[in-house]
Amino acid sequence: MAVDPTGESLKDYLAEDPGGPVVMLNLLRFKEGGQADYARYSRALAETVLPRYGSEVIYYGKGSTALVAEDGQAWDAVLLVRYPSREAFSQMVADPDFQAVTHFRTQALTEAVLQATVPIVPAS
Questions:
Q1: Core-most of 8, 65, 91, 108, by most CB within 10 Å?
Q2: Structural domain boundaries, residue 106
Q3: Is position 102 within any domain?
Q4: H or E stretch covering 13
Q5: DSSP H or E run through 21
Q6: pLDDT at 119
C-alpha cells in the first residue's frame, strides 16, 4: 500500500499548480502501535518545520463511525494542512529537518492518501 509520495507524483503536483494556497488532505491508516511514531513525526513538524514554510495544521482528528464507506475504506485519522503554495510544500519535503523525521511517518503507517485540494469558488 502507498504511504509516501514519489518523485513522479511530486513533479505532477507541481506541474498542476493553479497558484495560491493548497490544503493537503491526509487520510491515515496506522500500523499496530504506529500512533506513537506518527505523534513524534507530527510534533517535530509542528514545532519547527511547518512554521518555517508558513504552513499550519487546520484539523487533525481520529476516524470514527463511517456512515458511507465500503469495507476497508474507513481511516484511523484525518489531517488537513494548509500550505501557502505548492512550492512551499515541495521545499518543506526537501528540508533536512523534515528528512530527519519523515521515517517516523513511514514506519507509522500501513496506508495513506495524500491529496492536494484547491478551493471551489462559487460563480458570481
A1: 108
A2: 7-65+74-117
A3: yes
A4: helix 7-15
A5: none
A6: 86
